[in-house]
């Protein structure tokens, strides 16, 4: 095949039969792919049994292929593990085609840019709730960020309002998040889907054989783990539907994606363009696609603030100068806060939430810059490498929002590319912005201290699930001054 075509992109020497499988590490694959770019260039290839992987460490190449040629770069690898786990209706894992387009349309109806403008007041309200919760119980900041990240989506998808920390919807989403982070860990369920899949040596064919073997049989672990999680995933799909259906009977269901579509289905029956499974699947993907990623992004922001006090001080200075100390920030302030915008963009770039994204799959043979990309290649847009590109970012490992004021470009790829780009990006971006601006307006975030006053600095260490987030760390979150405290206390407007 290579004789008839230009060569593949460069790549390291491979083992016979298993190709590069042995080289790909279990931890921090994004970092490994980034290191490849130093030796083999920003477009490299790896071979794994049955497939070619194309690693893109260049924003330009990712945009040229995944954005501009998205017609042939928008497929996914089939994930038998995920289907077994109960995710058969998750658009994130669908092959490119009619069913994919249908689900994207359903998502777009509720998450397009214009629609998201109408959610801004609710997001501002949730931002105020967040700072109030942080004020009263700062040690549980992770829980508060989780609630913030989940609550708006629950309103949009199900018309459900979280009123207490032991809300069953929060429990369901946290169980599902646990399953997903366990799955993505090396040696577990994402084996046939993510780049991690290839780190574990199970390819599709092998999985098809092992999935029905008894649990003691070597190599059956991912399938068994998937089965053990099925209950949580099924509950996440079924509980909200039953809840809203009951409310519809009682006449208490709030306007939501689910109510709207369930009413449509009741009205039109089989003439309705969407089936009950379509509706359930899209509602669930909103719920799970948004919560973990938004929470991880905000946890990365908190870590950066502990490690970069001077950035925090400069951001607070900008807020004080631009809006004063008498109120909390709102979305109208966004254009007037360029440094805060830089903090947001650095949060996306510095240690980004989805370091290797979700790989795309190519649908036709292609040639790019004289290099051959075979049909069926797994395309990894390695956002980790793209955001650390030293040709684009000066001292890329430093969290420095002022780089954008000096003219460095905003990062690309943290929400993916082309026809697979994250459908929740408008919503997520506003959520993360209001949370960052509100937290900075009210609190000083600093390291906790030893008894003798020595600060305990958290390490830049991350747990890689579908979304990567910092290992648990402690920090002090205290109001900046009495005005800030009062704003947080009275913040509901
Ligand atoms: C900061 C928060 C978020 C980040 C960093 C993020 C990141 C991503 C990334 C990198 C992808 C893969 C795109 C690709 O394959 O090119 C993706 C896909 C997806 N995201 Fe997000 N996301 C976030 C929030 C959300 C929200 C709020 C929702 C829904 C309400 C959502 C729903 C989805 C869905 C359904 C997909 C699959 C799209 C497809 O395969 O066609 N995400 N996201």
Automatic annotation (TrEMBL):
<keyword id="KW-0349">Heme</keyword>
<dbReference type="GO" id="GO:0005506">
    <property type="term" value="F:iron ion binding"/>
</dbReference>
<feature type="binding site" description="axial binding residue">
    <location>
        <position position="422"/>
    </location>
    <ligand>
        <name>heme</name>
    </ligand>
</feature>
<dbReference type="InterPro" id="IPR036396">
    <property type="entry name" value="Cyt_P450_sf"/>
</dbReference>
<keyword id="KW-0479">Metal-binding</keyword>
<dbReference type="InterPro" id="IPR017972">
    <property type="entry name" value="Cyt_P450_CS"/>
</dbReference>
<keyword id="KW-0408">Iron</keyword>
<keyword id="KW-0503">Monooxygenase</keyword>
<comment type="similarity">
    <text>Belongs to the cytochrome P450 family.</text>
</comment>
<dbReference type="GO" id="GO:0016705">
    <property type="term" value="F:oxidoreductase activity, acting on paired donors, with incorporation or reduction of molecular oxygen"/>
</dbReference>
<protein>
    <submittedName>
        <fullName>Cytochrome P450</fullName>
    </submittedName>
</protein>
<dbReference type="InterPro" id="IPR002401">
    <property type="entry name" value="Cyt_P450_E_grp-I"/>
</dbReference>
<dbReference type="GO" id="GO:0020037">
    <property type="term" value="F:heme binding"/>
</dbReference>
<dbReference type="InterPro" id="IPR050364">
    <property type="entry name" value="Cytochrome_P450_fung"/>
</dbReference>
<keyword id="KW-0732">Signal</keyword>
<comment type="pathway">
    <text>Secondary metabolite biosynthesis.</text>
</comment>
<dbReference type="GO" id="GO:0004497">
    <property type="term" value="F:monooxygenase activity"/>
</dbReference>
<dbReference type="InterPro" id="IPR001128">
    <property type="entry name" value="Cyt_P450"/>
</dbReference>
<dbReference type="Pfam" id="PF00067">
    <property type="entry name" value="p450"/>
</dbReference>
<keyword id="KW-0560">Oxidoreductase</keyword>
């Amino acid at each position: 095949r290579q004789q008839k075509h230009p060569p593949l992109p460069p790549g390291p020497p491979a083992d016979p039969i298993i190709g590069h499988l042995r080289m790909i590490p279990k931890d921090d694959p994004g970092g490994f792919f980034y290191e490849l770019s130093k030796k083999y260039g920003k477009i490299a290839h790896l071979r794994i049994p049955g497939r070619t992987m194309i690693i893109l460490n260049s924003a330009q190449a990712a945009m040229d292929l995944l954005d501009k040629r998205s017609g042939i770069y928008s497929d996914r690898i089939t994930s038998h593990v995920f289907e077994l786990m109960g995710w058969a209706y998750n658009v994130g894992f669908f092959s490119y085609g009619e069913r994919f387009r249908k689900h994207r349309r359903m998502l777009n109806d509720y998450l397009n840019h214009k629609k998201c403008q109408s959610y801004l007041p609710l997001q501002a309200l949730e931002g105020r709730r967040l700072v109030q919760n942080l004020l009263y119980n700062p040690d549980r900041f992770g829980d508060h960020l989780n609630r913030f990240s989940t609550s708006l989506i629950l309103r949009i998808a199900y018309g459900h309002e979280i009123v207490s920390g032991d809300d069953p919807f929060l429990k369901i989403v946290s169980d599902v998040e646990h399953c997903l982070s366990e799955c993505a860990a090396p040696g577990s369920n994402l084996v046939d889907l993510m780049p991690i899949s290839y780190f574990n040596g199970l390819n599709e064919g092998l999985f098809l054989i092992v999935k029905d073997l008894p649990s003691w049989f070597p190599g059956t672990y991912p399938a068994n783990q998937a089965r053990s999680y099925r209950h949580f995933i099924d509950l996440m799909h079924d509980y909200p539907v039953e809840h809203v259906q009951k409310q519809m009977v009682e006449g208490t269901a709030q306007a939501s994606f689910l109510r709207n579509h369930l009413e449509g289905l009741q009205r039109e029956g089989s003439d309705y363009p969407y089936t009950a499974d379509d509706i359930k699947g899209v509602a669930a993907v909103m719920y799970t696609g948004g919560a973990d990623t938004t929470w991880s992004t905000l946890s990365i922001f908190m870590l950066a603030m502990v490690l970069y006090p001077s950035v925090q001080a400069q951001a607070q200075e900008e807020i004080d100068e631009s809006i004063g100390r008498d109120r909390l920030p709102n979305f109208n302030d966004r254009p007037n806060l360029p440094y805060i915008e830089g903090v947001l963009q650095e949060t996306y770039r510095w240690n980004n939430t989805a370091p290797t994204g979700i790989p795309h799959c190519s649908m036709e043979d292609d040639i790019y810059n004289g290099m051959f990309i075979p049909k069926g290649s797994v395309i990894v847009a390695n956002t980790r490498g793209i955001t650390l590109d030293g040709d684009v970012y000066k001292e890329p490992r430093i969290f420095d929002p002022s780089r954008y004021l000096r003219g460095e470009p905003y990062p690309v790829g943290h929400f993916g590319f082309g026809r697979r780009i994250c459908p929740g990006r408008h919503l997520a971006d506003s959520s993360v912005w209001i949370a960052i601006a509100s937290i900075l307006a009210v609190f000083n975030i600093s390291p906790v201290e030893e008894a003798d006053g020595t600060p305990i600095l958290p390490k830049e260490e991350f747990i890689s699930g579908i979304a990567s987030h910092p290992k648990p760390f402690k920090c002090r979150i205290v109001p900046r001054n009495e005005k800030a405290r009062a704003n947080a206390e009275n913040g509901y407007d």
